[in-house]
């Protein structure tokens, strides 16, 4: 399917400017289509997330690769990336939440989007982002986290998650996401009476979906082709389910 690509600027409530990338399938010229937000890993928007956006658009979805760091903020070194991400993770309610909702608000300005059919997927830091959208009952149909952080939002009341199906793909050998996080996440989802699925992929470590993860040369981080393909198929199956 033919796909058109656009860079778009948008703002959050604090006036911070972001630059996202949208992928519009040809079919959207004739009718509104479901939309999927893509939230990047710790480096911000890279070719990996752009490729996922394009793949989704080829399947007929309007894809929006969200920018959480700000226009022009594209760290290339690990230390810079963590320094950029750190303040957002440390204050998820006040600093990160407005940026997440800015992406949703911007997405919904596009006439091609069926606003009743919106989902979000995220990788690593982006996985945390989409799980937070579920926690806030943001009105989207589903979220899919790939090797994302599972920690709850501090001091946020554990209200029922009533609108969003939650799917988590976790690497069973990922020591960056400890057993305490896994157990805590399950307990949180049960308390919230969420519709959730948790998949643990054998032998997969952190960042298992990213083909260039081995080049990071970091302990416990690497690509796992089998887990990457299985988790992606599972994601697409869920999108089909919730967008019926």
UniProtKB/TrEMBL annotation:
Gene Ontology molecular functions: hydrolase activity
Family annotation (InterPro entries): AB_hydrolase_fold (IPR029058), Dienelactn_hydro (IPR002925), FrsA_esterase (IPR050261)
| Residue ranges occupied by any Dienelactone hydrolase domain in the UniProt entry | 18-242
Looking up SUPFAM superfamilies in the UniProt record yields: alpha/beta-Hydrolases
**Which intervals of the chain form a coiled coil?**
none
- Domain of life, per UniProt, equals Eukaryota
Name of one Pfam family that matches: DLH
Q: Where does the chain cross the membrane?
A: none
Record-given protein name: DLH domain-containing protein
């Amino acid at each position: 399917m033919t796909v058109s690509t656009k860079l778009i600027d948008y703002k959050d409530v604090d006036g911070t400017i972001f630059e996202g990338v949208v992928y519009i399938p040809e079919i959207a010229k004739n009718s509104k289509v479901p939309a999927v937000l893509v939230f990047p890993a710790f480096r911000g928007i890279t070719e990996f997330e752009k490729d996922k956006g394009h793949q989704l658009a080829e399947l007929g979805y309007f894809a929006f690769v969200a920018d959480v760091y700000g226009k022009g903020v594209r760290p290339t070194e690990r230390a810079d990336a963590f320094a950029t991400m750190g303040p957002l993770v440390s204050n998820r309610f006040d600093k990160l939440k407005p940026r997440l909702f800015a992406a949703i608000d911007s997405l919904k300005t596009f006439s091609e989007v069926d606003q009743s059919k919106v989902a979000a997927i995220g990788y690593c830091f982006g996985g945390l982002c989409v799980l937070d959208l579920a926690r806030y009952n943001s009105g989207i149909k589903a979220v899919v986290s790939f090797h994302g952080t599972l920690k709850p939002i501090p001091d946020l009341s554990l209200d029922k998650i009533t609108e969003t199906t939650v799917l988590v793909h976790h690497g069973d050998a990922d020591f960056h996401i400890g057993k305490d996080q896994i157990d805590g996440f399950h307990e949180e989802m049960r308390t919230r009476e969420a519709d959730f699925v948790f998949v643990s992929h054998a032998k997969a470590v952190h960042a298992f979906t990213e083909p260039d993860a081995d080049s990071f040369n970091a302990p416990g981080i690497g690509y796992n082709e089998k887990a990457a393909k299985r988790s992606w198929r599972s994601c697409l199956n869920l999108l089909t389910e919730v967008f019926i």
